[in-house]
Structure prediction request, 279 residues.
Amino acid sequence: MAIYLSEKLKQYRKARDLTQEQIADIFYVSPQAVSRWETGVSSPDIEMLPAIADFFKVTVDDLLGVDIAKKEERVLEIFEQTGNLVNREEKDGSEIDEAIEIVKNGLREFPNNVYLLARLSGVFRRKMAECKEAGKTDEMKKYAEKSVMTAERLVNEHTDYAIMPVIEQKYGIKSEMRYGAIGNIAYLYDEINETEQAVAWANKLPDIEYAKMFVLSRVLKGEEKIKQIKWNISLYSHELNTELKMLSECVYNNADVPEEIKRFKEAVAEIEEYARKEI
Prediction:
């Protein structure tokens, strides 16, 4: 239950707009202790749980995520069933349709569960790709629209849901999934050549300077700061490479090296020169 407890403590604290330092003052512990609680490194003493639950006006079972654990077990089962279907080596063509029905049934059990909405949108998108490959344009558009509608529900429901940490860890679905859903909606509209809608949804995403990884590289200290900066460079070097390739194809038709690539090489050379001086 520790993983649920850490998420619940963080969720309840943020809902009350309190800092870790304020929680530490209220329960006469150190801010470091509260930080460890919320990251799952350690847990409050069992004697403290009733007081913490009383402060947040919840039950100890709520605090421990007992009900969420039962729901998450069922949602995990749905994820595994649909994963086995779409990844099956020998297929007869019915797998994606069957997966769609399984997720729909799951949503009848847990209406508006954001994890199942993300799964359903993804399965609809797989069906869209299947129709596109088969040359079924009308069917492709239908499933693209279904995927968009499901992703829109995810965006709208995102602000009020219980975190399921095991699913987030196992399947890489994070609580920031709202932004992923918005990006997918933009891509889906692009797939069916509705550029205006694609651009409108893309514009709902935050500007790059406010992305988590960039803010972290500025506020972290020591080794954690260096680790984050290295990750950012690795990630965005790949993305920049993709952007430059697309620019070359769109503007230069691979005939010339664009000026942007020259500037990029000059910037890399400057960094290499700086590194040599530092060594």
